[in-house]
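Structure (tokenized):
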């Protein structure tokens, strides 16, 4: 899942070497924290959050096999 988020984010940004995904996992849920270069935050979020919403939808769909709730946060 971490690799999926990384590949999608690197395709969107101008500074792909600064894309990092941290995983915060506990017994009920998994949170992926995506950090990118400050200039690329808008590209990952998109107009009215459309790209961020699509990214979250893809990750949620891919995580159906896991019995935990999965979320993606975009941090600076």
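Design, position by position:
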């Amino acid at each position: 899942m971490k690799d999926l988020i990384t590949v999608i984010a690197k395709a969107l940004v101008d500074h792909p070497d600064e894309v990092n995904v941290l995983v915060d996992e506990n017994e009920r849920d998994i949170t992926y924290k995506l950090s990118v270069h400050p200039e690329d935050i808008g590209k990952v979020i998109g107009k009215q959050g459309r790209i961020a919403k699509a990214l979250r939808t893809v990750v949620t769909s891919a995580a159906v096999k896991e019995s935990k709730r999965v979320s993606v946060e975009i941090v600076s």
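Reviewer-requested clarification: The chain has one domain: 2-75. The mean pLDDT is 93.
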